[in-house]
Amino acid sequence: MNKLKLKEYNEYQIVYLYQPEGKGELGEIVYSFADKEAKVLKLAGDSSSYYYNKALSKVEECARGKALPVDFVQAWV
Q1: Nearest to 16 by CA among 8, 33, 52
Q2: Residue 41 and residue 11: Cα distance in Å, rounded?
Q3: d(CA 75, CA 41)
Q4: pLDDT of residue 48
């Protein structure tokens, strides 16, 4: 599970904070409208690629669909 929170939105980019399992240090993901892709700016405390890849995928999905939740809990089984 990741917690995602919208940090910044402007004409150039979207920035989300993500937190694996809702604990520890926050990571930061930016989606660039020019590049049309998301990148990790800062890894969260748990730097497992599993968590940040899930967060990257969700931020890209939200940006492309133009549905930008302010707070979001990303759960999977």
Answers
A1: 8
A2: 18
A3: 22
A4: 80
Query: How many residues make up the chain in this entry?
Result: 77
Torsion of CA 66, 57, 3, 71, to 10 degrees: 0
What 3-state DSSP class applies to 5? strand
pLDDT digits (tens, 9 = 90+) for 31-68: 999 999 999 999 998 778 889 999 999 999 999 988 88
Locate the domains of the chain by residue range: 2-70
* DSSP, res 34: T
Neighbouring residues of 41: CB distance < 8 A, sequence distance ≥ 6: 15, 28, 29, 30
CA angle 32, 18, 68 (to 5 degrees): 55
- Give this prediction's pTM: 0.90
